[in-house]
Amino acid sequence: MNDADRKTLDDKDIELIERTSPFRGFFRLDKLRLRHARYGGGKTEPFEREVFVRPDAVCVLLYDPCADAVVLLEQFRVGPLAHGHDNPFIASLVAGMFEPGEDPIEAAKRETLEEAGIVLEGPIEKIIEYYTSPGGCTERIHVYCASVDSSKAGGIHGLDSEHEDIRVAVVPYDEATTFMNAGRTAASDVAIGLLWLANHRERLRREWR
């Protein structure tokens, strides 16, 4: 291992020269001019990066350990539509951005009630935190798995004020896994949740039933 491999850089090695916001709407686009230290020594020349500014968000995998089933949502998503995806009505987990002052658990409970009509009263376990696209977006996702009684799930939900029209479906675990492996969802949250569940399912069925 050479010296460059051993060197660690952090935020103190970055010089932010200028930050502007050329666009402000429901989301915000910032332009940063900066330079930073190099692993091999010295500094980069000043350069610019544009970053899409979004608040943190939460995703919740709703799992019924007794029925061995997950609760999935289906709704319209503008990203796949704009990309040209053949069907922008895609399966996803409960998900939404934090409101001011909310912690992740509070956001998870609020979003689950709004989008699935379910009150979270049982165990909730953290899965992971990750940046959706660290090369150009501030958004960090907090993913949880929550125990639910899937017999109470179903119907159409969502907030009219946010133009939501969300269909809620109970899907047996094996079917959901086949669904994911067949590429029938374009959402990363479903893949992350189900891959995590594959490794923890038996434990959750023992502990949560």
Describe what you observe in this structure.
The protein is of the alpha+beta class and 209 residues long. It folds into 2 domains: 3-53, no CATH class; 57-208, Alpha-Beta Complex (Nucleoside Triphosphate Pyrophosphohydrolase). The chain is 25% helix and 37% strand. It has 5 helices and 11 strands. It has helices at residues 3-6, 78-83, 104-116, 173-181, 188-208; strands at residues 14-24, 28-36, 47-53, 57-64, 69-76, 89-92, 94-97, 124-131, 140-147, 155-157, 166-172. Strands 4, 5, 6, 7, 8, 9, 10 and 11 form an 8-stranded mixed β-sheet that branches. Strand 8 (124-131) and strand 9 form a beta hairpin. It is globular, with a radius of gyration of 20 Å. The mean pLDDT is 91.
Question: Can you give me a brief rundown of this structure?
Answer:
With 209 residues, the protein is of the alpha+beta class.
